[in-house]
Amino acid sequence: MAYNITDDCIGCGVCKIMCPVFAIDGEAKQLHEINAKRCIECGVCGRICQKEAVEDSSGQTIEKVPRKLWPTPMINAELCSACGICVEACRPGALRIALPKFSGDIHVSAELYAPKKCVACELCQRRCPLRVITMAQPIETKGDAI
Q: Could you give the dihedral angle defined by the CA atoms of residues 70, 28, 4 and 37, in that order, rounded to the nearest 10 degrees?
């Protein structure tokens, strides 16, 4: 099953822009649609929708979630082989293979290079052949009252 956009959609297009697999189509100010064959049920469209016009595959409305509360990938650098599969899967460009720490350093790994670009789609976690990526809620720091 795939997610569904309801008639509450105002056609703002934010979901279409954020979708990591290009599963959403629609014209400005018109009802958008999700291509069921492309949808990976990551929930990005629902978390970003101002009108809460997205339902999950069981018909439950997905609530808008502030971006600072979206989970982010945590990569176990000790076990990562730096194969780059997660980097290739990350359409927003939030991941990269870390630069060597010194000349001749061969112990590199994937890293969350641009956290503000991450859409929490979990494609990196799903595609990692070594299962060294987990998604975790951001850690609240002083001054980041939630």
A: -100
SS3 state of residue 141: coil
**What is the reported pLDDT for 141?**
54
Residue 33 CB coordination number (10 Å): 14
Q: Could you say which architecture CATH assigns to the domain 67-136?
A: 2-Layer Sandwich (3.30)
Residues with Cβ within 8 Å of residue 120, at least 6 apart in sequence: 42, 43, 44, 47, 70, 71, 72, 135
Look at residue 140 and tell me whether its pLDDT is greater than 90: no
**Residue 41: its pLDDT value, please?**
95
95 Rama sector, left if φ>0, alpha if ψ -120 to 50, beta otherwise = beta
Tell me the pTM: 0.84
On the CB side of 132, CA atoms within 13 Å amount to 17
Q: What is the pLDDT of residues 21-75, one digit of tens each?
A: 999 999 999 999 999 999 999 999 999 999 999 999 999 999 999 999 999 999 9
**All CATH 3.30.70.20 domain ranges in the chain, comma separated:** 1-65, 67-136
